[in-house]
Amino acid sequence: MSSLDTATERTAAKGDQLSRDGLLKFLLPSLLGMSMFLVPIYLEDQVTIGLGLMADWLKGLAGDALPAMAVTILCLSVVLTTLVKVTKPGWAQKGVWREIFNVGHAWFAMRVLGALFGLMTLFQFGPEFIWNRNTGGVVLLDLVPVLLTFFFCAAVLLPFLVDFGLMEFIGALVSKPFRFIFRLPGRSAIDATASWLGSGTVGVLITAQQYEQGFYNRREAAVIATNFSVASIAFSLLITTFVGLNHMFIQFYLTVVVAGLIAAIIVPRLPPLSRKPDTYYEPVGCRIAEAAPSDKGVLRYSLELAVARAAQAPGAGKLAMSALINVVDIFLALLPLVVAIGTISLVLAEYTQLFVWLSYPMIPLLELLRLPEAAAAAPATLVGFADMFLPAVLAKGIESELTRFVVACLSLTQLVYMSEVGALLLKSRIPLNLWELLVIFLLRTLITLPIIALMAHVFFF
């Protein structure tokens, strides 16, 4: 257990630490974090959060320059990684810089591919199937600008959400129901809410950071990242509008929530997640417990933990350096992975019959669920593994409103999308590999599909 944990526990054990200064140090930064990540904002018939508004402002400021900036970053990642591998400077042989630049051959190849795909798409040279608007164009022109701005803003604002006691407060407050229902710490409610209101990738970012700080063990981190990083309300509105179901948004989102909660209860109890060990990230070990002692009320204990955590929060300089390291890590290590995996996945979906062939076993299941146009809908049930927007693209051409409803709901409950969440998980230290992500995706598909179809038949159609 680290010195920070010991100090936090020691401070929380005292009964007089709920001073005015202590409460303010917890409340003011945490309220700022909540206002940016967790408070819904209704603007022009859209639901967003402060982080989303900040990211949109930054995206508007950079404008059409974002794809070129992204390609520059992709190329810089390759150049710096090559220089570090060749020259082996002292500063890059230890700590976080070693983890960013001293990568294996496979990860280096991904960075090279990401830069190459980015250049080909930006300048439209080489095979068209790489830079086509529906493949590399989707990644570089649609996905990357959103990720760049979202991740930059999230890296700057995240400390206000996780370093000043809010996670401890919520965690201790809802510890018992989360443990009972999901076998998870109460603080994971923050990850789910940040995903729900903001972005699934932001939820994964929070989970990865909490895992590396020892607040989640290996099983908990893997479960939270693959079962609670839900698509945001804003993206859900986009999906319903795209497939012509915006008049059924309430029914749509209710179905997604019910199916997602049931999957979050079942999937973690099945392999591969059930086989993950309850051990912690070795460099930090296990952090403080959330359960309140028998001699204290839950609310008071939650406040004591929160104030104790806020008292140990890093200063402004360390917070700024941590944010800078997070930005560098995301831009130079994660972005190439997203571009490489995203482009390859979209090429397979757009130019091959791979997903059509793989989806043949789904046709009898869809017919059993009494869904019209089962053959047309089958590829849409699996193509989401490549990118979360692809099922909606395929579903748009389906005439049956019932089938479009089911496919659209399913696309938001599958959660594991290689162009975003999957790439981020593979890059993170959370112990999940590609095959495990595929199995989890299929499990979530097979569990949520009948639930969605049943709700659609019984209540809405």
From TrEMBL:
Sequence ranges assigned to domain Nucleoside transporter/FeoB GTPase Gate in this UniProt record: 146-244
InterPro entries: Gate_dom (IPR011642)
Coiled-coil intervals, chain numbering: none
Membrane-crossing residue ranges in chain numbering: 23-43, 65-84, 105-126, 146-174, 221-243, 249-267, 330-354, 405-426, 438-460
Keywords noted in UniProt: Membrane, Transmembrane, Transmembrane helix
Record Pfam families: Gate
Protein name: Nucleoside transporter/FeoB GTPase Gate domain-containing protein
Organism: Oceanimonas doudoroffii
